[in-house]
Amino acid sequence: MAKKKEITVEEKLRALYDLQLIDSRIDAMRLMRGELPLEVQDLEDDISAYETRIHKLETDIIGLEGKIKDKKNEIEDAKSLIEKYTKQQEKVRNNREFNSLTKEIEFQELEVQLCEKRIKEAQVKIEQKKEIITETNEKLTTKKENLEHKKEELDEIVKETEKEEKTLLKKSEEFGKLIDDHLLKAYKRIRSNVRNGLAVVTLERGAAGGSFFTIPPQIQLEIAARKKIITDEHSGRILVDVELAREEQEKIEGLLK
Fold first, then answer.
1. Global pTM?
2. DSSP, res 207
């Protein structure tokens, strides 16, 4: 069996930079969407909150209407008792019975007044809740209109870039397979730890791309020699020379045309 060809350090560096170029293009594409996905999510959360609030208010109103109905029934019961006690007063034989019935009538009259007070309080609460529902519905309508516009805008951007993004994601996976697991994990870890997603950078004026710290001349020579993988001690990024980067940029641009 023929021995499998071992990949050189230079080939690893080229594969890493190719992967970085592709992933950077995916990042740029997603950046085009800007804050739209988050805005859509926020609007959907707001709409859900408004709908929950309206449902709770409507449930509260049903509860208050039930209480009003109960209080009206209590008023009818109290009035029936008042009528009954009043008729009984006409048949009493002494003042003690008359006074006792009078107290019962007064108590039921107070019950009627209390029930009427509770009904008015409930009616006021119902009106207040209805006003809040109206205001919330207006806000809900506005949020839904905004959501529709934002979704249309996002869908348009996604539609424009969807085909290219799928191609790039496939290429990213393909180039990732050319890199050994340990190196690929390191690349992904660095990408996740840096703001712009650049894990592999070139030297710019003697410093690592995006850094102000100068790389010693000896290290620059080693980077250009492509004999080992060198990282920037300050940012942790993998370093490649400008010439290699230019060659791979041309290759990837041609590949993606």
1. 0.57
2. E
